[in-house]
Amino acid sequence: MAPRLCIISAAARRLFTKPRPRAGDLAAAGAVRFYSKDSEGSWFRSLFVHKVDPRKDAHSTLLSKKETSNLYKIQLHLWRFSGGYPALMDCMNKLKNNKEYLEFRKERSKMLLSRRNQLLLEFSFWNEPQPRAGPNIYELRTYKLKPGTMIEWGNNWARAIKYRQENQEAVGGFFSQIGELYVVHHLWAYKDLQSREETRNAAWRKRGWDENVYYTVPLVRHMESRIMIPLKISPLQ
């Protein structure tokens, strides 16, 4: 173990005894000074001790709506279960005994190559999806976040959602609970693709929207956008 400690100590001497920087090196030198100030001599100990700030509530408790207790299921469609998990289980138990539905599942399976489900909660600061008159198109924007960043994402969007409300385009915002985790879905409504472009461009002219993008982009591992056309049976038209 002694040789390894010597190597670390030598690295520390190289870090803190760099020659006086030239003008072009000020950025790098500033980074070194910042590191030295914050560590206050304890940087070596931090190599071996991992400190975690305790959090007494899950992000699902902190970010979801308390007054509705809605649960959502996304697969080929987006379903809402008013009453949360008990409502979902009640629906599933009823469908198990529905012969027409069982026959439908049998026929549907012949057309599918794969299918994935996610159970979602809705963000407390987003609109609750309500029936809409059409015609509209819907954009489902999906963000796969870095683990541990959901609270930060929610804090930023809680301030930024006001910039996307003028045209009533915000339909709903959800985050995953079962299935692939740390996944966020934002659902937007537009009259057409041209309206989508104009609405999104208008957001950039509002002071504060750029800050939301700046702080949330580093939290994202992957994102995608899908344009959806509602079925005739959908309350969202």
Helix/strand layout:
Blueprint (H helix, E strand, L loop, with lengths): L1 H15 L9 H14 L3 H4 L12 H5 L6 E5 L3 E5 L2 H12 L2 H11 L8 E5 L14 E9 L4 H11 L9 E9 L4 E8 L2 H12 L4 H8 L3 E9 L9
Please mark out the parts with pLDDT under 50 across 5 or more consecutive residues, or reply none: 1-54
Q: What is the beta-strand fraction?
A: 15-25%
The order of strands across the largest sheet is: 2-1-3-5-6-4-7
User: What's the mean pLDDT score?
Assistant: 79
Question: Helicity, in percent?
Answer: 25-40%
Describe the structure.
This protein is of the alpha+beta class and 237 residues long. Helices cover 39% and strands 21% of the residues. The chain is built from 9 helices and 7 strands. The chain has helices spanning 2-16, 26-39, 43-46, 59-63, 85-96, 99-109, 150-160, 193-204, 209-216, and strands spanning 70-74, 78-82, 118-122, 137-145, 170-178, 183-190, 220-228. Strands 2-1-3-5-6-4-7 form a 7-stranded antiparallel beta sheet. α7 runs antiparallel to α9 (209-216).
